[in-house]
Amino acid sequence: MDKFEKVEKLVQKAGVSYEDAKRALEQADGDLLDAMIILEKEGKAEAPQQSTFSTAYEEQTQYVSVATQVENDRRSYDKDEQRRERRERFKAGVKKATHFLSSNYLLIKRNGELVVKLPLWAVLLIFIIAWHISIIALIVSLFFGVTYSFKGEADMSAANDAMGKASSAAGKVAEKVKEEYNKL
Fold this sequence. Notes:
- The protein is mainly α.
- The protein has 7 helices and 3 strands, in the order ααααββααβα.
- Among the domains are: 3-41, Helicase, Ruva Protein, domain 3 (Orthogonal Bundle); 104-183, no CATH class.
- A 3-stranded antiparallel beta sheet has the order 2-1-3.
- The relative contact order is 0.06.
């Protein structure tokens, strides 16, 4: 390799000017390696990046072990399965509640005559919308001979007994009020 080729090679490898490469090559008596070392010591060329390689075992973080992946997949499947089961239980509960509210009725009677027969879903809707007015109307109506009972597919004898007791208690209170009023 002639002197000109060595200077060009040094310019390419060291990234220095033509003049710096020629001067360093002259100082090194034409030895490319020595010229490169001179340029590195002067701070005009950057030392090559060193890298090391080893055959020692190092954990590869970019890889997931098969056992870990299988366990993660199983947990994900279990969570999906649990969500599906909860969703199915919720659907079944809604279906059961809808059937119950549609197949059972509240009967409102006054002096033994049927005034209104409401499905329980309508009663629930009325209580949700106007619960404070509904409760007051229910209590006041008991004093005017109105009775409430339930009828339908479900056994509502306990609720009917409670409604009967409330009606009879309200009737007794109403009678006492009338007696006291008549005494005046």
